[in-house]
Amino acid sequence: MEVRKRRKLMIWAYLIGFPLLFITIIAAMFWVVWNRGGAPTIAASIIAILLITLTLISIGLGMFAMRTEHRFAYGAIEASVAVVMMLFSTGLVIDAFDQPKTSLFLAMPSLLPFMASVYVFVRCMDNMLQGTDAKSQFQRVWQWMSGGKA
User: Fold this and answer.
1) 95, 124, 131, 138: which could form a disulfide with 79 (CB 3.0–4.6 Å)?
2) What is the DSSP letter of 132?
3) What residues contact 69, with CB distance under 8 A and at least 6 apart?
4) Are 63 and 74 in contact (CB under 8 A)?
5) Rounded CA gap, 33 and 137, in Å?
6) Per-residue pLDDT, 50
7) 82 contacts 120 by C-beta, under 8 angstroms
8) Helices 71-98 and 104-130 meet at what angle, rounded to 10?
9) Which tens digits make up the pLDDT trace of 17-68?
10) Which residues contact 10 (CB under 8 A, 6 or more apart)?
11) Is the pTM value of this prediction over 0.85?
């Protein structure tokens, strides 16, 4: 099999195949426990935690493989994640400062996700820039917008 096709297959396996498999196993496991009328046992919970961890690792590997092959598309996905993080963390910051007797120190746990969302957005811009063709008009516009060399 050609290297490029193998990489595409790897991306799809990590992003979709393995997570679907693990989530299906978790759902089936808890469905069996629920139909027996009991609460999940400690062993079932540990297995679920391990499978969720494997799912997240699989998605992470798939996203890394996608980043190496399709950097611009990865940056676009990262941009959407950054915007969702910004929306969520803005609500946390507003809630933190809306409380009586709030200091900057007490609001810091709410400010950290907000600052992290800005960092993710900066990373997405860098990935999108790295993923563009060096001679394209889009890259010149993108570099001008991001403050890079035009």
Assistant:
1) 124
2) S
3) 7, 8, 11
4) yes
5) 58
6) 80
7) yes
8) 170
9) 777 777 777 777 777 666 666 666 777 778 777 877 887 787 788 888 888 8
10) 62, 65
11) no
Pull the structure tokens for residue 149: 């060399």
Using one digit for the tens of pLDDT, what is the confidence trace for 91-147? 776 766 666 666 666 667 777 888 899 999 999 888 888 887 765 666 677 667 766
**Closest by CA position to 126, among listed 147, 109, 112:** 147
Distance of CA 16 to the CA centre of its chain: 14
Note whether 73 and 66 are within 8 A (CB).
Answer: yes
Q: 115: closest CA among 86, 84, 77?
A: 86
Cβ pair 108, 116 in contact under 8 A? no
Q: Is 101 in a helix, a strand, or coil? A: coil
> Where exactly are the structural domains of the chain?
1-69, 70-150
- Which residue has 């957005």 as its token pair? 121
What values do phi and psi take at 128, rounded to 5?
-65, -40
What are the residues whose beta carbons fall under 8 Å from the beta carbon of 144, sequence distance 6 or more? 150
Could you tell me which of 137, 140, 133 has the C-alpha nearest to residue 149?
A: 140
